[in-house]
Amino acid sequence: MHIYSINDVCKSFNNGKVEANKNITFSIKRGEIIGFLGPNGAGKSTLVKQMVGLLKPDEGDIHFYDQKINSNPEVLTYFLGYMPQRIGALGDLTASEAIRVTCKLKGLTNEATKVEVKTLMDEFDLNRIDKRPLNKLSGGENRLVAFCIALIANPEILILDEPTDGLDPEVRKIVWNKIMTLNREKNTTIVLVTHNVVEAERVLQRVGLINNGSIRAIGTVGELKDKISNQIKLDLKFNAMEKTNLINLFKDSSIYKVVPLDESHFIIYCDKEYIQSAIKILIENIGLEKFNDFNISTPNLEDVYIQLKKEGIR
């Protein structure tokens, strides 16, 4: 059963000058974990804001089950937990106060609110930061409180915008484990926006790659990796190297795709049969003495993401 259906959704700003979403169409099954990856400004947050009813599409429809939410966003109130990138109007409240207020807005009784506040404050160790308002907390502490607020009343669907951004490694692990536990034990549908491709690859069941407002590819992690399954990845770091020099070595060939990460760090993608030729070109034209690090591997989801950002994939 599809819990969400997004049909040909378009959204623009500045009188149409900025196209944030272009003809986006996909559906989400109940109980799946789907994530949207893409560079800053790709349109990910604009998309999820429409899915939670904070923005209305300029064109197209969004349905939650059989209810059209474009004109009826309140249908989501009791089913949805949403974690935005910023805490917003709750900034003057402490963590416990923000959880308590949200419980009331969701219609919980006084007793249920009391239980919910204690459970979340204890589970995520928030009592240690409860003397300060949210706008005085660190970015990571704010993200953790926002995550807890999204969990109130065990929503059927969670939409999380950058849930682990700014968290330290230990807390990130706690958040990811909670996400997977909710999905496994309660069949909670999870929609994630994230930049952390490596962590997301271990959690996501399906991935949508967004760039320039459009979904460029969507499928399981395996399906997306299959798009570059015949490729080999050369990860190169140099002691000193001009970016243009390396790019010029391969510029006349469609066989090699060179992706500069910075002035001395490059990735080269090519089909497996051309790997020896690539290495020969590098050694003959640059010399081994200039290599600081050299690694050969098969591409992963992060490489699909990198190619999307730099040149796009098919």
TrEMBL record:
Alphabetical list of SUPFAM superfamilies matching this protein: P-loop containing nucleoside triphosphate hydrolases
A Pfam family reported for this protein in Swiss-Prot or TrEMBL: ABC_tran
Keywords: ATP-binding, Nucleotide-binding, Transport
PROSITE patterns per UniProt: ABC_TRANSPORTER_2
GO molecular function terms noted in the UniProt entry: ATP binding; ATP hydrolysis activity
Domain ABC transporter, chain residue ranges per copy: 4-237
Family named by the database record: Belongs to the ABC transporter superfamily.
Name assigned to this protein: ABC transporter ATP-binding protein
Lineage: Bacteria, Bacillati, Bacillota, Clostridia, Eubacteriales
